[in-house]
Amino acid sequence: GILYAMDGSNKKYYNRETSIPFSSDGDIIKEAKILSLGKADDINNEPLYKGQLPEGSRLLAVGLVLEDFDIPALKLQEPNVIFISSSYPREVFLQLLDAFPTIEWMHSRSTGIDHIQSKGLAAAEHVVVTNSKGCYSSTLAEYTLMACAYFAKDLPRLMRQKQHKDWSKYEVLELRGATLGVVGYGDIGRAASKLAKAYGMKVIALRRNPTLSKGCPICDKVYGVDQLNTLMSESDYVLVAAPLTDATRGLIDADAIAHAKKDAVLINVGRGPIIDEDALIDALSNGKLKGAGLDVTTLEPLPTESPLWELDNVLLSPHNMDVTATFLRESTEFFVNENLERFVRGEFLLNQVDKVAGY
Amino acid sequence: LKVVSRPSPINPIVRSFHSSSLRAATNTVTTPHADPQLKNYKFWNREESTPGQFSYLLDISPESIRKEARIISLSAPDDDANHALHEGVLPMGCHLLGTGSTLQDFDELRNSNQQPNVVFVSPSCPKARVQLPLVLAAFPSIEWIHCRSAGIDFLVSDALAAYKHLPCTNAKGQFSSSLAEYTMMACSYFAKDLPRLMQQKKGKKWEKYEVEELRGKTMGIVGYGDIGRACAKIASVYGMKIIALRRNPSMSEVDPLCDVVYGTGKSSLNKLMSESDFIVCSAPSTVETRGMVNADAFKVVKQNAVFINLGRGPVVDEESLVEALRAGRLRGAALDVFIEEPLPPESEFWDLENVLISPHNMDQTGSFMHEATEFFVNENLPRFVCGEDLLNPVDVEIGY
Questions:
Q1: Would you call B27 exposed, middle or buried from its count of C-beta atoms within 10 A (0-12, 13-18, 19+)?
Q2: Do A319 and B200 make contact, defined as CB atoms within 8 angstroms?
Q3: Contact between A17 and B239 using a beta-carbon 8 Å cutoff
Q4: What is the ipTM of this complex?
Q5: How many interchain CB pairs under 8 A, A with B?
Q6: Could you tell me which residue, A290 or A112, shows the higher pLDDT?
Q7: How far apart are CA B366 and CA B374, in angstroms?
């Protein structure tokens, strides 16, 4: 396995905070002929639509549905790259792959590809898939520690007391010395661990390949997926930062939650369906869990009937805790400045996704 | 205006302000990193200092005892945070002679042949400001005052200043990390617009909005002591830039956590206010700092900055803070301390939407005062009986 290198020298993945920007003496050996599956007026795509592309590379067409693309004309130009920023790309993307067998690379502007993933994609061996891993991690790490503090300092109580002009002192908990369990120890998990360590928290990491994190300086223990219940029983704060795949769907189920430590807080920045939402609601209602910080839910937007709206001990956000003014644009910049430059020089692309695993 | 930017070599600076022998002893080393064995560094930090190892607690033997400690404790009668002192086992050579909250409570001791030489004073002692000088006058044998809390403003008076020749120590470093956690929470509270989240939740409204990152923002720390440093330690890992302001900027010259260090003075403070996205006020309340963050400072504050006060209320001119909030110059404020506590119901802060109020409890963990007493018992008492320098010296005349 490849050990994680904190100094940006890890050549496989990008991290906005630590990676060294691309530069190379290599010659351009091919042209990128790009299709953009997304909105033509999406200003976050401007680095692609209006920016400087490598010599010889060009944007061929932009569209959201198959009809937007002039298939016969484009076939002649042999597009080889698809850049996806559309929210519902799954079917159209397969149709484009079918229409253009010259496609060799698909890049997703988002990190999660659960909205793109399909059997057809998994079977397309000639297509490399890359994503925007590492572009938003620190923002989500900030949210994570805020959610921990929200419960540790009992922010809801502060707001209530303020409403009643009530000056009642009460005890607060420290994050220092508490344990953060990270389910899905990828880029987001590591960014959260980095902050947690600065607070003096203990970190337990859980991932499919625990050996890849052996020796990682920012976690105290590394578990495999079979040790989930152990992690639950040892963590004061559990961060779910995993991608949504067949392996992770419903991973945090009633059984896992039953193993939670007393007064544990569950935080989800991955994907809603990773947690069994009914079991979660039960646990929050009956006091099994102290609280939850949810930036993602099974259904988004969250329907008004969901009990989550009315549970006092839930910090709810509309899947926006990584939505900075610039994050989407920065993702596109990553595509243009980092991976496109690598592609045209025949170099190894960053952030390659395992099409079968789905992340 | 003294501005020191890192990196720079340490220049010998002539200390132009009042200096006592205590202060001279602390000039040489300013951070625990430079002196992990605490041989020269005189201050205690709960996270970084090594408990016990150099406390002589384990090494005390009849041979190493230079003098005995005969302690009286000025505190509220039912203050169980003082358990380690009042009921615990004390280091060899240390004796608790009595506890009380007024001089009268120690009447029996006046004629005893066991005269106290140490007074331990807790903020729980009602009217401590009056009682402490009375106790000091009645027991001239007292040679050391230890204050259980970090703030000594509740003790400072002209009567006490007459005893400035006595070493006085405090609980600096005991509460800093809790307050640093609060600081980061307060910053995120505004950056992620937590009030909006709560509002949207109440209205069952699912509406995406943009959040801000702390990464890349500037935190300006007014009063860069132990608490300020604890904040900087965490904020720097977030990728924030740190501006520190303290009376002795040269003492932070080699501090790797600060990007810029300013000295005190109006123009320094104004510069910090104009450059910071998040202002953290962690200065003690002294004659110099009272009302320091005033209308002039708030006039030049960076548009949409957030003001956080976790030091002492009187350092800030509350009226101008309210004005800056109402005028929209400040995005918001997070206040754990106020000029008057409990905060009276008439205070305008209660009604300001963009103010996060906490009842001076953001360092109040279940154990914080117990740990402060333990620090006295485990760290400073052994040093006293072994004739070593005491940790955490404070200057009762300057007020911190």
A1: middle
A2: no
A3: yes
A4: 0.88
A5: 136
A6: A290
A7: 14
